[in-house]
Specification:
It comes from Tatumella ptyseos ATCC 33301. This protein is of the alpha/beta class. It has one domain: Rossmann fold (3-Layer(aba) Sandwich), CATH 3.40.50.1820. Helix content is 42%, strand content 19%. It contains 13 helices and eight strands. An eight-stranded mixed beta sheet has the order 1-2-4-3-5-6-7-8, sandwiched between helices. It starts with 10 loop residues before the first helix and ends with a helix.
Length: 306
């Protein structure tokens, strides 16, 4: 089975099944796209993306009998942009409020990239809101990665994979260099962090460019990194890491992305941890949506009650 074959996105067919909505947390307004019927499942995207990164995954999950909600985090996608609130505690509280609006029962959370930072904080800070947690291809700031069996990358590959962590947290310089060059920057990320760059085509890139060029969006996105690597946030993550997550957790990695690193960083912190390695680049939801959903389906079958 070819898990990386990409069928062009049919927006007309998609929006016959899914629709946009907003949720007011009291502090900010979150945009989301939702559809399907059944138990709710929340999808959380990463940077520099939006709910749109889940466009191939959402119909597959809805076909499996789930109500699917793909949310834009504060300051990203079409959610409100503000000047503060980009620490993981506040972001997790945003999601906890959204989850609470869905009913009293905890929900399944599936997250990618920076969305995994926030969703890990959600599971730690608001455990009653999360039933099962699936995190994909992320390095969570403040969680050390023990040595594993993955081969060490070359210095060039290591730089290509992680340079933006240091760059994004610098004060002001990223705004100076990137303003007016957002398209070139996004093209570089999508060309270099995918195994198949055609998985994110020209039309898709225009959508990501649109949301990243909104007033204040660049600084908001960079604030995720600036907050995450602050001394306060690193201490908070260290405190979270002292607790053991008792809910089922799936750590998914891209073979041409973070590999097993997320699993390694979580293995001493989760009571019921599973791992999945998917043959693709970093942008798993778009490069290998079928493989991602298959990994989720197996995970949920093994832990049907959370």
């Amino acid at each position: 089975m070819n898990d990386t074959a990409i069928t062009p996105f049919d927006a007309t067919a998609f929006f016959k099944r899914f629709s946009h909505g907003t949720f007011d947390t009291g502090e900010t307004r979150l945009n989301y796209v939702a559809g399907g019927e059944g138990e709710p499942l929340l999808l959380v995207p990463g940077w520099p993306q939006s709910w749109y990164c889940w466009r191939y995954v959402m119909p597959l999950l809805a076909d499996a009998g789930r109500r699917v909600i793909a949310v834009d985090l504060r300051g990203m996608g079409d959610s409100s942009v503000g000047t503060r609130g980009y620490d993981t505690g506040t972001l997790a509280t945003d999601l906890a409020a959204l989850v609470a609006s869905l009913g009293e029962a905890p929900v399944d959370i599936v997250a990618h990239d920076v969305g995994s930072w926030v969703s890990y904080a959600l599971a730690c800070d608001h455990p009653a809101r999360v039933r099962r947690l699936a995190l994909f291809d992320a390095l969570i700031p403040g969680l050390p990665v023990p040595a594993g069996n993955d081969p060490a990358p070359s210095p060039a590959k290591q730089a290509a994979a992680t340079w933006h962590f240091s760059f994004n947290l610098l004060a002001d310089l990223p705004e100076i260099l990137l303003t007016g060059r957002e398209a070139q920057f996004l093209d570089w990320l999508f060309d270099n962090k995918t195994r198949n760059p055609l998985a994110i085509n020209a039309r898709d890139r225009q959508e990501y460019l649109r949301v990243n060029k909104r007033p204040g969006a660049l600084r908001a996105a960079l604030s995720y990194y600036r907050e995450a690597f602050s001394e306060t946030e690193l201490r908070r993550t260290q405190q979270r890491s002292q607790q053991t997550l008792t809910l089922p957790v799936l750590a998914g990695g891209a073979a041409q992305g973070a590999g097993h690193k997320l699993q390694l960083s979580l293995q001493a912190r989760c009571e019921r941890l599973e791992a999945a390695l998917i043959e693709c680049g970093h942008y798993i939801p778009e490069e290998a949506p079928t493989a991602l959903v298959r990994a989720l389906s197996g995970f949920y079958a093994r832990y049907p009650h959370g």
